[in-house]
Specification:
Blueprint: E1 5-7, E2 14-16, H1 20-47, H2 54-79, H3 87-103, H4 109-132, H5 138-157, E3 162-163, H6 166-171, E4 174-175, E5 178-179, H7 180-198, H8 200-210, H9 212-217, H10 222-248, E6 250-251, H11 259-269, H12 281-300, H13 305-330
Antiparallel strand pairs: 1-2, 3-6, 4-5
Helix pairs in contact: 1-12, 2-7, 2-8, 2-10, 2-11, 2-12, 3-4, 3-5, 3-10, 4-5, 4-10, 7-8, 8-10, 11-12, 12-13
């Protein structure tokens, strides 16, 4: 009897046995970032005994918090087949606006914190309006917002750091033995996953990213979805900016510069498709951890920061190449 087939007792039909190789390939395709993170962790554990220590793992969590929170918002945009180049600048503007409200506007700390979140949300919504109603490509609309937000940050600060409210500084402190950035990361990740997986707007994001015209014909309010998507990206960017300023105890005019590239890389490494319609918050978190673990490991190994940029660039290129290969295979 052919071992590649089995006889079903009900119908007598021959059924092909499961292909172990195919299952392994599917698992790697669906969980490649997680496998890569585990392999990377084991390699660094072998290379340096300082990697798997409690303080270093907490340090990795703290470093990953800002990038991951930024990337959660970016996930919404990429799932909806867009891109947001402004998240780093919006993060800086939100933190600076919050600090300015506290020091110059004399607002209570909690109001200044909420004000920072509102600034980020409105900034994202403006980009969303430009994309949805102005019909600008998301690349152009958010590139413009990148420049506007960074310019406003410099105007508010006059190029100098501004002290933050104690409520914002609390975000950079500790909650018992656990650093607050890690607590915020977990809460933000759960909230983002709930939005993407268990709400109507989350289902609409996948539909719009999968096929915008089909989504429109099926009655989905595509324009409102796009505005909401970018507003959510701005909100998570603001939270990331407040986390960063809380860690520094001040809002810095050049804070989060270039972080938008890390956010995009984390989403793509996590398995999202730049073509839209595919992406998971859990994958984005793993992608952010991959980036941070690589940097952390290279620092422990005393690798030059210049070479670190080269390595990160190669990782991003591999992730984008893997995405292109997945899309090519899915069309055949």
């Amino acid at each position: 009897m052919n071992k590649a087939a089995v006889q079903t007792p009900e119908t007598g039909a021959r059924k092909k046995a499961p292909d172990t190789g195919a299952r392994v390939r599917k698992f790697l395709a669906d969980n490649g970032a997680l496998v890569g993170l585990v392999v990377l962790g084991l390699a660094l554990f072998i290379a340096t005994p300082d990697f798997l220590t409690g303080p270093n793992l907490l340090n990795i969590g703290i470093q990953a918090s800002v990038i991951a929170v930024l990337a959660f918002g970016m996930t919404f945009v990429i799932v909806a087949a867009g891109i947001d180049l402004s998240v780093g600048s919006v993060a800086a503007l939100s933190a600076m606006g919050s600090a300015w409200m506290f020091t110059q506007g004399n607002l209570p700390g909690w109001m200044a914190l909420l004000g920072g979140l509102l600034i980020g949300t409105l900034s994202g919504a403006v980009s969303g309006f430009a994309v949805a109603y102005g019909r600008l490509p998301s690349f152009i609309a958010t590139l413009a917002m990148l420049s506007i937000a960074r310019g406003l940050t410099l105007v508010l600060s006059d190029g100098r750091p501004i002290a933050t409210a104690s409520e914002v500084s609390f975000l950079g402190g500790d909650l018992g033995p656990i650093p607050m950035p890690i607590v915020v990361l977990v809460i933000a990740g759960i909230a983002a996953a709930l939005i993407l997986n268990y709400t109507v707007i989350g289902r609409y994001m996948y539909a719009v990213g999968g096929n915008t015209e089909a989504a429109r014909l099926s009655g989905i309010p595509v324009r409102r979805v796009l505005v909401t998507v970018f507003a959510l990206s701005g909100l998570f960017a603001a939270l990331a900016g407040l986390l960063l300023s809380g860690r520094l105890d001040s809002a810095q005019p050049q804070a989060a510069s270039g972080y938008e590239l890390d956010a995009i890389a984390a989403v793509v490494i996590g398995g999202a498709s730049l073509a839209g319609g595919v992406g998971r918050i859990s994958g984005t978190l793993i992608g952010a951890l991959v980036l941070v673990v690589i940097r952390n490991g290279l620092n422990l190994l005393n690798v030059s920061s210049f070479w670190q940029q080269v390595v990160i660039g190669l990782v991003i290129a591999l992730a984008v190449g893997a995405d292109a290969l997945r899309r090519k295979n899915s069309t055949h």
